[in-house]
# Entry
Amino acid sequence: MRIVMLEPLAVSPEVLDAMTAELKAQGHEFIGYDTRVEETAQLIARGKDADILIIANQPLPGEVIRACSNLKMISVAFTGVDHIDMNTCQEKGITVCNAAGYSTHSVAELTLGLLVAVMRNITACNEVVRKGQTKAGLIGQELYGKTVGVVGTGAIGSKVARILRAMDCRVLAYSRTRREEVSKLGVENVDLDTLLAESDIVTLHVPLTEETKFLIDKERLALMKPTSILINTARGPVVDNKALAEALQRGQLAGAGIDVYDMEPPLPDNYPLLALDNAVLTPHVGFATTEAFYRRAEIVFANIKMWLEGTPQNLVK
# Structure
């Protein structure tokens, strides 16, 4: 089999060599690119003879997939697959496996970091210290005792709920699937409107689907308290960021911590959230830790190995 890694996985060449050694010993060919390209023609040139493709969050349109006539399997070094033309994969009978779980800890930890950064004015505090100023006007809030709404209780949402319960927060949850292990933490399952109305902090952990696109829109933002905070480390289009910026500007919400957008950074200068002091913004780094990158590479090659053995894992439906 010809295995082509279309973009780098942010692990060292030594780690990559170790992880591909068994596949090479079995006679499979591995080609790994250490640069990322966006143009369709370049992607086709790289992947056209591949039996197996490896990508992270590289957009993979149907035109590229159809041009790869030998393609049988895609191993995705990412959890979400909304950047892949899944309809074409289904038409061509191509197996798609993701790296589910690789960034659970990293995203949960960034969620907590953004939450604390907003509540304790950490970025503003950093600026005033460097300017020789004081804490005047920068008195923060405690997380202790707050009501936090967790939207989506998959692996990451459940991890966040567990952390928040350990910090003595009341935790509300909204999810299509109610999980017994989450309920055992003392988490209260409620409908989405109730969660938005009662929470001091709302944190989002749902995948991007037709049902979740703009899940948090102008109308739902209006349900939140003017003292509340919104955290999004899920997928950008889950929130209408234009409506969010307007709500923050009007004082309809107290603050926001955002890691994901309706486009990948760099953001244009006129992006509505950039002008707001009550929004802490990070450049889609929730998944980006040394440990998470190593885990996802392990999962990517384990997925290939299991598929070759006829027992695929982490199948995307």
About this structure: The domain at 2-102+289-308 is CATH 3.40.50.720 (Rossmann fold). The two ends are 24 Å apart (CA to CA).
